[in-house]
């Protein structure tokens, strides 16, 4: 089982770099759906991802249809949108026999409306106060959602550090 974060036409290299770093730290695959709003050798992208880039499983997709075609079971697709009616915490991510795909829209415009209308039952949201902000930061949103899935899955393959490991204090 693998968790996947997919970014639809990301524009900001720092967001993508931060998400790549989260993917490296959580053993999550990253999918980038073109066109990208930056070059993959962008210094801001590399700086945000630090030296973790070779630890990230990245797949590039020519477009949204190419990405969808790569998913073996669309039942495991979750579309993250502030317009969804179901909260991300309402979904059961326990099934570790299947991959889970979390699709995030472009920072400025989200996902295409026709696409959203086609898959409303797959949409999940992070609650927010819309009277103060338009949207949460993309990299923060990706971290919130992936850590909820990992929490439900009992954090598979993630090391648990102990603050006071007596053996390491000697």
Automatic annotation (TrEMBL):
<protein>
    <recommendedName>
        <fullName>Putative tRNA (cytidine(34)-2'-O)-methyltransferase</fullName>
        <ecNumber>2.1.1.207</ecNumber>
    </recommendedName>
</protein>
<comment type="similarity">
    <text>Belongs to the class IV-like SAM-binding methyltransferase superfamily. RNA methyltransferase TrmH family. TrmL subfamily.</text>
</comment>
<feature type="binding site">
    <location>
        <position position="80"/>
    </location>
    <ligand>
        <name>S-adenosyl-L-methionine</name>
    </ligand>
</feature>
<dbReference type="InterPro" id="IPR029026">
    <property type="entry name" value="tRNA_m1G_MTases_N"/>
</dbReference>
<comment type="function">
    <text>Could methylate the ribose at the nucleotide 34 wobble position in tRNA.</text>
</comment>
<keyword id="KW-0808">Transferase</keyword>
<feature type="binding site">
    <location>
        <position position="105"/>
    </location>
    <ligand>
        <name>S-adenosyl-L-methionine</name>
    </ligand>
</feature>
<dbReference type="InterPro" id="IPR016914">
    <property type="entry name" value="TrmL"/>
</dbReference>
<dbReference type="Pfam" id="PF00588">
    <property type="entry name" value="SpoU_methylase"/>
</dbReference>
<keyword id="KW-0489">Methyltransferase</keyword>
<feature type="binding site">
    <location>
        <position position="126"/>
    </location>
    <ligand>
        <name>S-adenosyl-L-methionine</name>
    </ligand>
</feature>
<feature type="domain" description="tRNA/rRNA methyltransferase SpoU type">
    <location>
        <begin position="4"/>
        <end position="147"/>
    </location>
</feature>
<keyword id="KW-0963">Cytoplasm</keyword>
<keyword id="KW-0819">tRNA processing</keyword>
<dbReference type="InterPro" id="IPR029028">
    <property type="entry name" value="Alpha/beta_knot_MTases"/>
</dbReference>
<dbReference type="InterPro" id="IPR001537">
    <property type="entry name" value="SpoU_MeTrfase"/>
</dbReference>
<keyword id="KW-0949">S-adenosyl-L-methionine</keyword>
